[in-house]
Amino acid sequence: MTTTSPTKKPGGARIAVQRFGTFLSGMIMPNIAAFIAWGFITMLFIPAGFFGANSPFGWHWAPVAEILGGGGDAAAINWPGAMTALTANTDGGTYQGYVGLVSVMITYLLPLLIANTGGRIVYGARGGVVATIAVMGVIVGTNIPMFLGAMIMGPLAAWITKQMDKLWDGKIRPGFEMLVNNFSAGILGMILAIVGFFAFGPVFLGISAVLGSIVAFLVQFNLLPVLSIIVEPAKVLFLNNAINHGVFTPLGIEQAANSGKSILFLIEANPGPGLGLLLAFTFFGVGAAKASAPGAIIIQFLGGIHEIYFPYALAKPMTILALIAGGASGVATNMIFQGGLAFPAAPGSIIAVTVAAIGAGPANLLVVYLSVVVAAAVTFLVAGVILRASRKRDQEAEGDSFAAAIDQTAANKGKESSALGALRTRAAGTTGSGTTETADRDVDAALGGLEGGAVATKQLNNIVFACDAGMGSSAMGASVLRNKIKKAGIDGVTVTNQAIANLDGSADLVITQNQLTDRAKAQSPDSVHVSVDNFMNSPRYDEVVEMVRAQHEAK
């Protein structure tokens, strides 16, 4: 029986930046659907949209576009009850125009959703409520979409609420808990909203202005492609979320609100570099990397899961230069021909990119496609030269280097995912069983420990897969195990997925990636814990199913 190796404690600048990026993406990613909804409404109903007055297709849908897109003359259209505001016209006069959905959603809805999500991450529903109130003050105190303010003020307000509650924890007389909780949150929210209006609003305006000036400087001197020197290596090390969600997304949405699209959405999300790298490994790679690359292309290019190509770059670090060259070429193409997206493409699939690009018109879509093709071609050519130059040496050394690169990618991310699990399985099918054994070493040890007595004394009816966000890899892992339990004919067992921060101790068995197990144990100490490397394809899931079956048959 193998033994579980000690879990390395998080530390260092890389882990700190990675955790910060994970926190930022945790605020943005759950609300991507709202961004997409806003993007579609903008794409359809603004004057330059599909159904707007200046539709590139001539599909003007009057007066619906003027009502929903905003700006329509209320006196002329006379749609009763809709919100209006004083609007300036082209000759300098004013009229009562419809507010519509576009400006209201980007000014209020999206920042408030981010604030609420950030507050919930820090302090649950109570933190989310106070965060929303506080950020409302920041929004009204500024004249630009306040995404940056929401991402900072929201979690800060929730943290202050948490510290406030500690002051009288256990000191409230029975029967007064609801009164104290509601009034304290309301009063604190009011104070933070006022402070946000007068103090934080101007500060966030200044920060946004500085970041905007940096981007304007890069655009003015045609230096945006230089960002690829930072972004592409950061992606491979999972450090890109802090840049993408902390800078590019807030500034990109502001640009899109003003001009209908933003190039910033494509600096990190362009699927071209990853496609080019995988094509290079398909034609010029060796061993497991060559065999698994074609399947990885489908997951990366169509599914938008970019992490699938990171092990290939780690297996041959020189190819990161190819990714930088391809990324810079794609950015340069969009910069020269004014390409961009109307809203964030998440995930970075060519399908999502297409939907986000077409809103700015067919010409813009062609430019974006060109940027993807150019990025893929440049990456392919540079990576091909690198791989061909070392092909003989790689064939001699080929063995477990690609498996080690997959392990390194999982370690860089801080958690396993279904994409890496599928990649690991394909690699194992090419090189033998050694990789699979490595991938599941912690599962084997954990299950061995369970067989020693934990399963016999604790009934496993509630199984939870937990990861950082509780949305992606854990959801797929839960789906796999749920199907196995269903096929085994076992009833009365629930298999769900959650973020580690949301574990409440009710789970009988918690399954996590090995680097997250210590955090899960701290959050849910009374649960049985199993560590895995491979969320998606671990053969040890069958052992879990057999243990659960044995328990239920012994009832």
TrEMBL record:
<keyword id="KW-0808">Transferase</keyword>
<keyword id="KW-0813">Transport</keyword>
<feature type="transmembrane region" description="Helical">
    <location>
        <begin position="210"/>
        <end position="231"/>
    </location>
</feature>
<keyword id="KW-1133">Transmembrane helix</keyword>
<dbReference type="InterPro" id="IPR013014">
    <property type="entry name" value="PTS_EIIC_2"/>
</dbReference>
<dbReference type="InterPro" id="IPR003352">
    <property type="entry name" value="PTS_EIIC"/>
</dbReference>
<feature type="transmembrane region" description="Helical">
    <location>
        <begin position="95"/>
        <end position="114"/>
    </location>
</feature>
<protein>
    <recommendedName>
        <fullName>PTS system mannitol-specific EIICB component</fullName>
        <ecNumber>2.7.1.197</ecNumber>
    </recommendedName>
</protein>
<dbReference type="GO" id="GO:0090563">
    <property type="term" value="F:protein-phosphocysteine-sugar phosphotransferase activity"/>
</dbReference>
<feature type="domain" description="PTS EIIC type-2">
    <location>
        <begin position="20"/>
        <end position="394"/>
    </location>
</feature>
<dbReference type="InterPro" id="IPR050893">
    <property type="entry name" value="Sugar_PTS"/>
</dbReference>
<keyword id="KW-0472">Membrane</keyword>
<feature type="transmembrane region" description="Helical">
    <location>
        <begin position="121"/>
        <end position="140"/>
    </location>
</feature>
<keyword id="KW-0762">Sugar transport</keyword>
<dbReference type="InterPro" id="IPR036095">
    <property type="entry name" value="PTS_EIIB-like_sf"/>
</dbReference>
<dbReference type="GO" id="GO:0005886">
    <property type="term" value="C:plasma membrane"/>
</dbReference>
<keyword id="KW-0598">Phosphotransferase system</keyword>
<dbReference type="GO" id="GO:0009401">
    <property type="term" value="P:phosphoenolpyruvate-dependent sugar phosphotransferase system"/>
</dbReference>
<dbReference type="InterPro" id="IPR003501">
    <property type="entry name" value="PTS_EIIB_2/3"/>
</dbReference>
<feature type="transmembrane region" description="Helical">
    <location>
        <begin position="275"/>
        <end position="302"/>
    </location>
</feature>
<dbReference type="Pfam" id="PF02378">
    <property type="entry name" value="PTS_EIIC"/>
</dbReference>
<dbReference type="Pfam" id="PF02302">
    <property type="entry name" value="PTS_IIB"/>
</dbReference>
<feature type="transmembrane region" description="Helical">
    <location>
        <begin position="308"/>
        <end position="328"/>
    </location>
</feature>
<dbReference type="InterPro" id="IPR029503">
    <property type="entry name" value="PTS_EIIB_mannitol"/>
</dbReference>
<feature type="transmembrane region" description="Helical">
    <location>
        <begin position="366"/>
        <end position="387"/>
    </location>
</feature>
<comment type="function">
    <text>The phosphoenolpyruvate-dependent sugar phosphotransferase system (sugar PTS), a major carbohydrate active transport system, catalyzes the phosphorylation of incoming sugar substrates concomitantly with their translocation across the cell membrane. The enzyme II CmtAB PTS system is involved in D-mannitol transport.</text>
</comment>
<feature type="domain" description="PTS EIIB type-2">
    <location>
        <begin position="461"/>
        <end position="555"/>
    </location>
</feature>
<feature type="transmembrane region" description="Helical">
    <location>
        <begin position="183"/>
        <end position="204"/>
    </location>
</feature>
<feature type="transmembrane region" description="Helical">
    <location>
        <begin position="340"/>
        <end position="360"/>
    </location>
</feature>
<dbReference type="GO" id="GO:0022872">
    <property type="term" value="F:protein-N(PI)-phosphohistidine-mannitol phosphotransferase system transmembrane transporter activity"/>
</dbReference>
<keyword id="KW-0597">Phosphoprotein</keyword>
<keyword id="KW-1003">Cell membrane</keyword>
<keyword id="KW-0812">Transmembrane</keyword>
<dbReference type="InterPro" id="IPR013011">
    <property type="entry name" value="PTS_EIIB_2"/>
</dbReference>
